[in-house]
Amino acid sequence: MISSEVKDRLRQFLRISSLCVKVFSFINRIVFFQRGMYPKLTMRILGLQPLIKQKTRRAEQEVVTRELLWAAFIELLAFVVPLINFHKVKIRLQKLTGTKRSPPNPRTSMSAGNMLSCASCLQSPPVLPTCSVCAHVFCYYCLSSNLQADSNYECPICGIEEDRQQLRPVRVGHVGVQDS
């Protein structure tokens, strides 16, 4: 049997050696952060090195660089996209390519079913129904924001240029639209 004095010395030796391992591991970690070699204390003691040390670092750097570039690009898009007036871009593209709207069919464009939804966002029923020069119904927000963004805003259905001065609320009934 082992005496209690030997047990106490053994416990003290284990505590001291455990503390030494922790201190050396900490020092090894600091040296690893500076030099990039031997991430673990056992690797340093045994002299083990990764086989593809340089290629791995370059590959990791390329991945990190790519991620940083994508993050910057996404931030740029998140800032720029809300500033773009897509309606104006669409109109200019239509003018450049020569595509025109087909003339409105009086039977379909003014039908009761067509008048019960917003001509811009297609919400049915429109929120605060409003119309302007043409008789198509819009949500007040859709029409006023489009007119604010583009003073030459045209109705997406018939192509008639809308006028901010002629905005008027409408009452959407069960059969059709009536001026208020």
Written description of the protein model:
By secondary structure, the protein is of the alpha+beta class. The chain folds into 3 domains: 1-49, no CATH class; 54-83; 86-179, Zinc/RING finger domain, C3HC4 (zinc finger) (Herpes Virus-1, 2-Layer Sandwich), CATH 3.30.40. 53% of the residues lie in helices and 7% in strands. The protein has helices at residues 4-35, 41-46, 53-80, 86-97, 106-109, 112-115, 140-149; strands at residues 129-131, 138-139, 168-172, 177-179. It has a 4-stranded antiparallel beta sheet with strand order 2-1-3-4. The longest helix is centred in the N-terminal third of the chain and has 32 residues, at 4-35. The chain is elongated. The relative contact order is 0.07. The model is unreliable at 103-113 and 174-178 (pLDDT under 50).
Keywords summarizing the entry:
180 residues, alpha+beta, Herpes Virus-1, 3 domains, elongated, disordered C terminus
Give the helix/strand layout.
Layout: H1 4-35, H2 41-46, H3 53-80, H4 86-97, H5 106-109, H6 112-115, E1 129-131, E2 138-139, H7 140-149, E3 168-172, E4 177-179
Antiparallel strand pairs: 1-2, 1-3, 3-4
Short characterization:
With 180 residues, the protein is α+β, with helices and mostly antiparallel strands.
